[in-house]
Fold this protein.
Amino acid sequence: MKFKLDENFGTRTSGLFRDPRHDVRSVAEESLAGASDQMLYETCRTECRCLVTLDLDFADVLRFPPLKGPGIVVLRVPRNPSLELLENLVGYFLAEVHGKSMENNLWIVEPGRIRIHQVES
């Protein structure tokens, strides 16, 4: 699976995605920090990478339609989450996504549940 991690992920949390099954790039590695949401969305579409972010703006299916992309994952955390909570959410997501396609989907990952907005292509 190909992921692009938004700039709101630090090195330690990004490390959880590093796995032989995943091709992971980060916004920081590619000098895209500070890019507009639209530019990041288009970059992910061009690269066929699922965007993983904490930015709730990407949950807006009218602005960022799942049908037109390789997938979006929004980790929804309370204000000022602990690193442990964030790492648990990442682990929960990675366990659930294993073997599934992210294409044309928006996943909203929260403590205790995952909501999947699916669009038929």
